[in-house]
């Protein structure tokens, strides 16, 4: 964390670039990109220009990864016994930090522009099916649907627990938290966009003042538009020769990203401009770490509990050992993310292993409960638990709306993947459009891995169902054979004379 916070010490490129160096190679990369981008992609990730170039394991990333998993292990060492205590800190602390950021964010210039951008719908964006697919995937992550964590945690509830009330409460709290978190985030992003817009205007104003030898402060941000209109009509050749940049606040607001880019680049660039940037950085990254821990608690519990409850692992196995094995395996798998190409693999796992399988698993969960276990039996179970009958909303949603929506989102994802080959954006200093990222198509072998990541978790559901079906058939067949043998033995015994006869 402290390694990342060092990026807040100085926003100027020359603070992280070699002083006596030609602007070629890595040095060109340093001078042509922003300090935050250079620090993130080169100093932190040491990223390769192509996913096919794996690069070496970065020791500092391995150290951070090992530290994180060690903390996760300590918090889940005895399953729900330790997780339940740690969750109080990891769940409450982010709300505290968000409140602090909310108060600070609303006082920043441009905060209202950011909030207006947040709450003003863009109809053209809403027409894009990719947006709805991303929204559906996000709600799965937000509610931890189909991960198994919620089911694992709920298994510790009392038999007659008001599960309907819990479900509604979780959904409402989740939505309110998302809305509450978006306000400080977009306030800060609005501040960043406004600052970039002002910088763009100031550079244009300086160029005009120098070209026309005007007095300083004759052109201000407030009268910039009128001056440009006047000069365009009176001196169009000179204005065209200056090659002024187009300064549009909306364009700066549109320059938003998601995932690691939002947390470690865009938000970081905004925090740099805030007074006391290092203090805000510490709060921000501790909050992110707490959120990550909370997510991992559910994921670990989603593996830990079924292994014990389904008797895959003996209940006599020490919980400390089982939790340690789960964390160790997870750590070893995650080592691929510490390679020079690790950032590209994180995007692949996020896009394919963390989206399609969730949709498919959730679809099978709904179909399994409603049409295999039967909705009537499930309704009786809920009534026994809560003392209330399921209302019409749940009946219609589970029978028709949820399966249909999941199917539509899945088909939309498949259609989008078929329209164009899977691609990614690479940080390539040799790209002619650098510092913009270069869009590349995944190599065939990477595409095959993408298919496997999406397909393997999905095939587990029908394969396990088939296994249990065959097991049940064999059990019923064995029972029939035993019954037949007993019946035949009874019939044979009836032919023998009774001892008393």
From TrEMBL:
<feature type="binding site">
    <location>
        <position position="142"/>
    </location>
    <ligand>
        <name>Na(+)</name>
    </ligand>
</feature>
<feature type="transmembrane region" description="Helical">
    <location>
        <begin position="279"/>
        <end position="300"/>
    </location>
</feature>
<dbReference type="GO" id="GO:0035725">
    <property type="term" value="P:sodium ion transmembrane transport"/>
</dbReference>
<keyword id="KW-0769">Symport</keyword>
<dbReference type="Pfam" id="PF00209">
    <property type="entry name" value="SNF"/>
</dbReference>
<feature type="binding site">
    <location>
        <position position="174"/>
    </location>
    <ligand>
        <name>Na(+)</name>
    </ligand>
</feature>
<dbReference type="InterPro" id="IPR000175">
    <property type="entry name" value="Na/ntran_symport"/>
</dbReference>
<feature type="binding site">
    <location>
        <position position="295"/>
    </location>
    <ligand>
        <name>Na(+)</name>
    </ligand>
</feature>
<dbReference type="GO" id="GO:0005886">
    <property type="term" value="C:plasma membrane"/>
</dbReference>
<dbReference type="GO" id="GO:0046872">
    <property type="term" value="F:metal ion binding"/>
</dbReference>
<keyword id="KW-0813">Transport</keyword>
<feature type="transmembrane region" description="Helical">
    <location>
        <begin position="87"/>
        <end position="111"/>
    </location>
</feature>
<protein>
    <submittedName>
        <fullName>Sodium-dependent neutral amino acid transporter B(0)AT3-like isoform X2</fullName>
    </submittedName>
</protein>
<dbReference type="InterPro" id="IPR002438">
    <property type="entry name" value="Neutral_aa_SLC6"/>
</dbReference>
<feature type="transmembrane region" description="Helical">
    <location>
        <begin position="396"/>
        <end position="419"/>
    </location>
</feature>
<keyword id="KW-1133">Transmembrane helix</keyword>
<dbReference type="GO" id="GO:0015293">
    <property type="term" value="F:symporter activity"/>
</dbReference>
<keyword id="KW-0812">Transmembrane</keyword>
<keyword id="KW-0472">Membrane</keyword>
<keyword id="KW-0915">Sodium</keyword>
<feature type="transmembrane region" description="Helical">
    <location>
        <begin position="352"/>
        <end position="375"/>
    </location>
</feature>
<keyword id="KW-0479">Metal-binding</keyword>
<feature type="transmembrane region" description="Helical">
    <location>
        <begin position="445"/>
        <end position="470"/>
    </location>
</feature>
<feature type="binding site">
    <location>
        <position position="291"/>
    </location>
    <ligand>
        <name>Na(+)</name>
    </ligand>
</feature>
<feature type="transmembrane region" description="Helical">
    <location>
        <begin position="131"/>
        <end position="153"/>
    </location>
</feature>
<feature type="transmembrane region" description="Helical">
    <location>
        <begin position="57"/>
        <end position="75"/>
    </location>
</feature>
<feature type="transmembrane region" description="Helical">
    <location>
        <begin position="321"/>
        <end position="346"/>
    </location>
</feature>
<keyword id="KW-0325">Glycoprotein</keyword>
<dbReference type="GO" id="GO:0006865">
    <property type="term" value="P:amino acid transport"/>
</dbReference>
<dbReference type="InterPro" id="IPR037272">
    <property type="entry name" value="SNS_sf"/>
</dbReference>
